[in-house]
Amino acid sequence: MAPALFRVSHLCKKFGDNTVVDDLSLEIGAGECLGVIGPNGAGKTTTIRMCLGLTGADSGSIEAFGLPIPARVGQAKQRIGVVTQFDSLDPDFTCIENLRVYGRYFGLPRSVIEERIPKLLEFAALQAKAHVTPGELSGGMKRRLSLGRALINDPELLLLDEPTTGLDPQARHLMWERLKQLLQQGKAILLTTHFMDEAERLCDRLLVLDHGRKIAEGTPRGLIAEHLESDVVEVYGDGARRAASRHARLAERVEASGETVFFYLRTPKPLLDELSGDHSLRYLHRPANLEDLFLKLTGRQIRDDA
Asked: Distance between CA 205 and CA 191 in Å, rounded?
């Protein structure tokens, strides 16, 4: 196995009495996407900030390319690209100018910057918007420009904090396509996301965080197989709760959320046979997925932002 480009060991961070990151360890290799998922307040963004030297850790260590963070964060950042939750594009600059100015922050020669700009605009599918300001771009275009800007220094590692939040499905799919291209080029990606389909499509491995602590780690399919039954039957509508009490014996686990009841099973046929005879019910049979995993490990209750 190739040595890790990025390594976090036993990282801890408190704000007052609140433990935000609790003994977290992770590592990422070249060409690998490591996803970090968890409820609001799980510690995802704080972890990213510590990895960039923006927030100090109480204990533990961070290394990028063998360089300690934050002691040598300036040197490490020369090889890192960052896309934050919220766009930090300069509203007064055109797309080209945003790329050009950002390249200067890295001390890149002008000739290198000018050579990379057309390629990055093409990568972001923004050739036709090269001379417009971010205010004239859609949300998806802004996110693609942010990703393109993060690549101006040709980084080996990308830290992406919820990069597709607020995007419509078409824009999200285009971002996924671009991120897959970067992985194929051998770049490493640390990705935080709230979208379980995004995590399943992009991530080689996942960490599940809750209350700052890692509660599960593995491949998406491996985690599903380890923690969940193979099949889910969702029953909807007025009769769902009645169906739950009537058919609970046929499932390994039953959960209710609003007007939907979830039957988790390894042998779905007996339940489906009984449901098929009740025309008052609507139901859906599907394989277990990452959203089921997320809800089982972290609970269905709504969390406040933290």
From this structure: 10
User: What pLDDT is recorded for position 278?
Assistant: 83
Q: Which fold has domain 229-287?
A: Alpha-Beta Plaits (3.30.70)
What is the C-alpha to C-alpha distance for residues 173 and 148, in angstroms, rounded to an integer? Answer: 16
Per-residue model confidence (pLDDT) at position 2: 61
pLDDT digits (tens, 9 = 90+) for 261-286: 999 999 999 999 999 988 888 999 99
Rounded to 10 degrees, the C-alpha dihedral 89/106/95/169 comes to -60
Residue intervals of the chain classified under CATH 3.30.70 are: 229-287
Beta-carbon contacts of residue 39 (< 8 Å; ≥ 6 apart): 210, 298, 299, 303
Q: Which CATH architecture has domain 6-219?
A: 3-Layer(aba) Sandwich (3.40)
Residue 301 pLDDT class (50, 70, 90 cuts): low
- The predicted model scores a pTM of 0.89
